[in-house]
Here is the input.
Amino acid sequence: MNIPFRREDALMPGEVETIAPGVRRIICNNPSAFTYRGTNTYLIGTGSSVAVLDPGPIDEAHLAAILSATSGETITQIVVSHTHRDHSPGVAPLKTITGATTYGHGPHVTPGESGDHSFIPEIRLTDGETAEIGGRSVTALFTPGHCGNHLCFALDGTGILFSADHVMAWSTSVVSPPDGNMRSFMQSIARLRAREGIDELYLPGHGPSLPDPMPFLDGLSAHRQKRETRIVAALREHGPATVEALVGPVYGPLDPRLIAAAGRSMLSQLIMLEEDGAAVREGEAWRLT
Here is the structure.
């Protein structure tokens, strides 16, 4: 089953898009092979109570765009979906200016340069907890996999889910150990799939919105299962083999910028196979049991 990607996105960095009443989007100008056109920052609420979801990296122009978009309003809360460096470092300068209260699941849980280890939320949101965010009722959904402290946020009663980097319309998510965990990722996909009839529009951390998300979730699940089948076949033919040696047989031709990330996601699936007793690691090489 193919994933029905959506990649068209006309919003320019610094511009403000109104998605729904009380929901606005701004794109940070930090494009890359992993962030697409940049990090999406969402403004939830208006007037005397505005929450900023994922203020992005430290970027003066993006900070200015957030403040301009909320001119005459009051930013009362800063919410973080997860602590990767393209999402949460912008909290510090925004808090210095606004004094807003910070929210998130918790600090970064694993070592590594991709994590923002400086962010510690003042208010920790647990799975299923409902809070007033930007004057709206929002429910936090713990969805680890891409990142160990990843949260999605349901805007209660609207059909809108802020899916952050767990589900994005433009691409699949990188699942890079030890911060990423493929088993957790698949369980989190299943958890969102079980919300059929509740969530009708996903607003992701990068790229355009995703309407009718359930077929997309089915495509993601099928994609990961197909990838596992190809890994097993590659190990059967080429193993014992290192992750680097397996990338080509499993993925085929790739953009050179994505080869390392593909290897990291494949490692997460190899670890899951190891946990299931289907594969074993011998030094840097992997083989089937």
